[in-house]
Amino acid sequence: MASATEVCGSVSFYLMEFEKLHNLEKKVMPAAAGSSWNPPPDDIYKINCYGSFDPNKRIGGYGFVVRNMNGEVLVAGAGNISYASSALHTEAIAAYKSVLHAAQLGMSRIILETDSIVLANALKSPNLDRSIIGALIVQIRDIM
C-alpha cells in the first residue's frame, strides 16, 4: 500500500503531465534592467528568481519569490550552492528550485522571470541544450 506522500507525489506528477498535454500557459521572460515589477494576469503566478556567484570560491546562492496578480508574496525561498561553475549555473539552479517549489504547491500557470537573458533564451528554445548546464535546462523545462 502506498503512503500518503507517495500518493501525493503521483498525483502531482500526473497533474503536471495533464497540464503539459493541454498546453497550460507558462512563460519565461528576461527581466529588463532597471524595470519595475509588473503583476501577472489573473490566475497566473509570477516567479522572480535570482542567482549569485563567487568565482574565487566557486560557490553561490539562489533566491526566488512567487507573487499573485495583486503582488502579494505567496512563497519565497533561498539557499546556498556549495559547488557552482558559473553565474549562469546559479541562475539555472534558482530557476529550477523556484519552478519545482511552485509545482509542488500546485501552481501550474506560471511566468518565470530571470535577469539572465541567456537562461531565458535557453528555457524558451525547443532545441536540445548541449551546454554544461544542459541537463539542468531539460529538468526545468520538464517541470514547466
List the helices and strands and how they pair.
Blueprint lengths: L3 H18 L4 E5 L14 E10 L4 E9 L5 E9 L5 H18 L5 E5 L2 H8 L9 H10 L1
Parallel strand pairs: 1-5, 2-5
Antiparallel strand pairs: 2-3, 3-4
Helix pairs in contact: 2-4, 3-4
CATH superfamily: Ribonuclease H-like superfamily/Ribonuclease H
- How many helices does DSSP assign? 4
Would you identify the regions where 5 or more consecutive residues have pLDDT less than 50? none
Class inferred from helices and paired strands: alpha/beta
Annotated CATH architecture: 2-Layer Sandwich
Q: Largest sheet at a glance?
A: 5 strands, mixed
Q: What is the number of domains? A: 1
In spatial order, strands of the major sheet run 1-5-2-3-4
Strand content: 25-35%
| Average pLDDT rating | 83
CATH topology, anyone? Answer: Nucleotidyltransferase, domain 5
Silhouette:
globular
Q: What percent of residues adopt helix (DSSP H or I)?
A: 25-40%
Termini separation comes to 30 Å
The value of Rg in angstroms is: 15 Å
Query: What oligomeric state is this?
Result: single chain
Counting DSSP E segments of at least 2 residues, the number of strands comes to 5
Q: What's the SSE pattern?
A: HEEEEHEHH
Q: In the CATH hierarchy, what is the class?
A: Alpha Beta
Organism: Miscanthus lutarioriparius
GO molecular function: nucleic acid binding; RNA-DNA hybrid ribonuclease activity
Protein name: RNase H type-1 domain-containing protein
Domain RNase H type-1: 48-144
